[in-house]
């Protein structure tokens, strides 16, 4: 089988797993919203667990878990978010923002610590090089945040 066909099968399988799992959650929440049987705790748990379960199924079937999570997230926002209560939406937004901030902090911490893990970094680059790198990183980060904020 050609690599293109293998890629197409892998992508489509991952796409279907992510989409179907999100659509199942959307259907459950829509029916639960009409009958008023789903509690806020259940809504939040489903929103958190759905991408993880999608990942596990995709990996178990030898598809791409990352593609499955990506597609799952797109479908969750499009089809599940309108069926959530306002309280659940606020809790989910605050929770995901907190996790994103913590993950970003850990990444930058590891990047900062990685500078000192390389032998003779300071001697090779010098103080001016390290200061310039820090300034350029902050400029790039500010530009990235500014552009992203303008788009959103």
UniProtKB/TrEMBL annotation:
<dbReference type="Pfam" id="PF00999">
    <property type="entry name" value="Na_H_Exchanger"/>
</dbReference>
<feature type="domain" description="Cation/H+ exchanger transmembrane">
    <location>
        <begin position="2"/>
        <end position="147"/>
    </location>
</feature>
<feature type="transmembrane region" description="Helical">
    <location>
        <begin position="63"/>
        <end position="80"/>
    </location>
</feature>
<dbReference type="GO" id="GO:0015385">
    <property type="term" value="F:sodium:proton antiporter activity"/>
</dbReference>
<keyword id="KW-1133">Transmembrane helix</keyword>
<dbReference type="InterPro" id="IPR006153">
    <property type="entry name" value="Cation/H_exchanger_TM"/>
</dbReference>
<keyword id="KW-0915">Sodium</keyword>
<protein>
    <recommendedName>
        <fullName>Cation/H+ exchanger transmembrane domain-containing protein</fullName>
    </recommendedName>
</protein>
<keyword id="KW-0812">Transmembrane</keyword>
<dbReference type="InterPro" id="IPR018422">
    <property type="entry name" value="Cation/H_exchanger_CPA1"/>
</dbReference>
<feature type="transmembrane region" description="Helical">
    <location>
        <begin position="6"/>
        <end position="28"/>
    </location>
</feature>
<keyword id="KW-0813">Transport</keyword>
<dbReference type="GO" id="GO:0005886">
    <property type="term" value="C:plasma membrane"/>
</dbReference>
<feature type="transmembrane region" description="Helical">
    <location>
        <begin position="130"/>
        <end position="151"/>
    </location>
</feature>
<dbReference type="GO" id="GO:0051453">
    <property type="term" value="P:regulation of intracellular pH"/>
</dbReference>
<dbReference type="GO" id="GO:0015386">
    <property type="term" value="F:potassium:proton antiporter activity"/>
</dbReference>
<keyword id="KW-0406">Ion transport</keyword>
<dbReference type="GO" id="GO:0098719">
    <property type="term" value="P:sodium ion import across plasma membrane"/>
</dbReference>
<keyword id="KW-0739">Sodium transport</keyword>
<feature type="transmembrane region" description="Helical">
    <location>
        <begin position="101"/>
        <end position="118"/>
    </location>
</feature>
<keyword id="KW-0472">Membrane</keyword>
């Amino acid at each position: 089988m050609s690599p293109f066909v293998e890629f197409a099968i892998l992508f489509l399988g991952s796409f279907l797993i992510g989409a179907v799992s999100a659509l199942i959650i959307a259907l459950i929440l829509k029916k639960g919203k009409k009958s008023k049987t789903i509690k806020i705790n259940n809504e939040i748990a489903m929103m958190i667990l759905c991408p993880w379960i999608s990942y596990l199924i995709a990996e178990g079937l030898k598809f791409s878990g990352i593609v499955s999570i990506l597609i799952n997230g797109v479908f969750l926002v499009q089809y599940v978010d309108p069926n959530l209560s306002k309280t659940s939406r606020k809790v989910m937004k605050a929770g995901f923002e907190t996790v994103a901030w913590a993950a970003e902090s850990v990444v930058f911490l590891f990047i900062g610590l990685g500078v000192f893990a390389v032998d003779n970094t300071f001697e090779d680059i010098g103080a001016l090089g390290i200061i310039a790198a820090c300034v350029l990183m902050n400029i790039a980060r500010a530009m990235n945040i500014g552009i992203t904020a303008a788009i959103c």
